[in-house]
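Teaching note: in complex prediction, the entire set of molecules is handled at once rather than each chain in isolation. The prompt given to students was simply: 'Predict the structure of this complex.' The entities are:
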Amino acid sequence: MSTTLLAVQTLNGLQLGILLFLIAAGLTLVFGVMDFINLAHGVQYMLGAYLAVAGYQLTGSFWLALIIGLALALFCGLVLEFLVFRRLYDRDHLDQVLATFGVILFLNEAVKVIWGAAPLSLPAPNLLDGAIPLVNNLQYPVYRLALIVSGLGVAALLYVLVTRTRVGMLVRAGATNPDMVAALGVNIRRLFMIVFGFGTMLAGFAGIMAAPILSVEPGMGDNLLILAFVVIVVGGIGSIRGAFLAALIIGLVDTLGRSFATDIAKLALPPAAANDVGPALASMLIYILMAAVLFFRPSGLFPVRSA
Amino acid sequence: MTVSEAAPILELQGLNKSYGALHVTKDVSLTVRRGEIHALIGPNGAGKTTLIGQISGSIAPNSGAIVFAGEDVSSLGVAQRARKGLGRSFQITAILPAFSVLENVALAVQAKDGHSFRFFKRASSDAELNNRAKVYLEMVGMTARAGLRAGDLSHGEKRVLEVAIALAGGPKLMLLDEPMAGTGPEETERLVTVLHGLKAKIPMLLIEHDMSAVFQLADRISVLVYGEIIASGAPEDIRRDPAVREAYLGGESDL
Amino acid sequence: MMTRRLTAVGLPAALFVVLALVPLYAGVFDDRFVLLFATRILIFAIVAVSLDFILGYGEMVSFGHAAYIGLGAYAVGILAEHDVWAAWISFPLAMAVCALFALVTGAISLRTRGVYFIMITLAFGQMAYYTTTSLSAYGGDDGLTMWGRSELFGTGLFNGDTSFYYIVFGVLLASYLILKVMTRSRFGRVLEGAKQNEARMEAIGIDPYRYRLTAFVLAGTIAGLAGALMANQAEFVSPAYMSWHRSGELIVMVILGGMGHLHGAILGAIAYMVLEETLSGYTEHWRLIFGPLLILIVLYGKGGLLGAIRGR
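The expected output is the structure of the full assembly:
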């Protein structure tokens, strides 16, 4: 267990945490304001990545691909909202889960039909290519650093939007007491559209940013979706602040756990057993963390309203 | 009357509850004696709902104690207090709408028996359960409605059913949260008759807006205003109390 | 009233009679595929029935129910890997493992409600999934092939197509009957009552938590038994058994058939599997059709197949 490895894995953990935050933020906003549980949020992340790849194949520029990807992801999200989701706002959570599960089945398959089942990739832009030395002999890819920085930037922007603007105020009020917002005579439909579109863009942005470092393939959003669920459950549903903190914790615990669990297990167990137990333990770690948090705080770290 | 019989069934000792700067229950002390109906009245926003929550166990007071049947129950949960003999009706009707009237009461009878880990005997043909449930329906005059789906009852009948459910738990005290809310004059009359008939057997804490019902039923009345009990006494005294008139009715006099 | 009584008793009876006759049909028309396919369907039907017990009666939307199939299957598979083939050892062990997993995860999940519960059960299901993928000694991602089937006191009943079908059929029938009886018992009344009005239950002195947890453990145990059968049916176990898509499909089966009647779940399992088989016969991209179909069912098909049969 070297310090260099520890530093690299900490950065990787932060990077996973940032991606998780971008996905969880949209999920928790949409749930908080609209009481709508959207399983299809993960496929919107996937769509962002695929649309950016398509944009790149068309233009040959990462930056244009980013813009095209974001715009098209937003468009797809709004189409979905128009066709399916808005019919579900009044339904119970079971219906919402099932219908958005149907959307997942459809879109994962559609992506397979259009782009094939083989993984695709999006090259990082020249500007952010290469690696820079951090400390003594540690090199770290610039693009990954840029991802962390841009994610933190989005988080800051989100913070300002939620705390300083009128829509943000409504979002906070809606998460605490949805009936009150409706009673204030706010155009709920429009507020929903804005929040939903914004959440979609965040997920799409996460997908695009992840595309150069993770493989772009059908179903890529599913696993992150479930991690994002863990994040918002730990953070407290509806809380952006909770989502941010929990995303970083989950990202770090998961990444560091996977790199070091076997080594740590070797301290207590014979090497052969440790090689078996380590990875199994590592994959359970974040769920154990979630269980522990819920045991003491059933509504998460930053409860917005009771569950 | 022996000493233990004279001891109050319910005693609230200096309850306080605040939400931030909002002090909703201010040093409330109150007793319900055996064999009496004690009515708690007060204008909207007086903090009645919060107080009921503290008595039933869904809200924890910041300070003070709740002594029920000679035992401090302050730290017990809702279900535990119910098992100790605290029966209640809700302001917003709380029945099991998909069950029949009889099933609603039978479930309360079953709850009184202790645990419900009986997996194989069919509950609907459990004669013992049904017979006991029927006794309570008889007491409130709802025998004829036993087979009906509870959700299909009229509003007033649902309120009566709630009383029957509370009765079936064999309560030592009934906490009735606005049982007459939303009922018509005939239904109110019926509820008053039912409650009046039960008074000798089961003491009640009655929270109610319908003043004529309150004055027909109550042995004592306490008045809650802004979280504070401003007066407590026999109905005649409360009727004459100037502070009550002032706070409760703004000086007008149809108490 | 008459038709209701008829669908409540007659329909499940007819259903089980038809299912009991499947091997006869397969024998007469020499159609082994139908028998094998029906076996698979019935295994899923057992899981769907167990899920309906907690979902339909207890309003517990467990999105991790497939985990029990996997855990039950792995219990049998891992024992087989160590040359333990006796069903009287592996099946009870599979059920015990699932009961324990349900007890621990249920005790935590049931402290929460609604969406939290959905997400947490999903997460625990995923935990089981990833744990098995990292079991490198037992095949990890690739799964574990069993070189044979469980043994029932040297009878070889697990090996014959027809005898194995009847074992599965028997388990389904027993699960259905036991759970059906329970839904009508005092215990079942508490479960259903808590679904209708939790505050009322507490006010009469019943804290629903213990009852929900009991039902949750029971459902997990039965699903684990189905998992043990699944391992034998496929002679192969893999993490894919417990993927969250599978958990989603199980909920779809329950809803498709009509939630809260138990036999609806059996109908739903049949309908889902037949639909999947038919659609995938036309195109490998059958999910392109099934996804939108599912959305339409949710939006416009209240009550599922049972609702349609009743004409409501």
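Point out the following to students. The first helix of chain C runs from residue 2 to 28. The radius of gyration of chain C is 19 Å.
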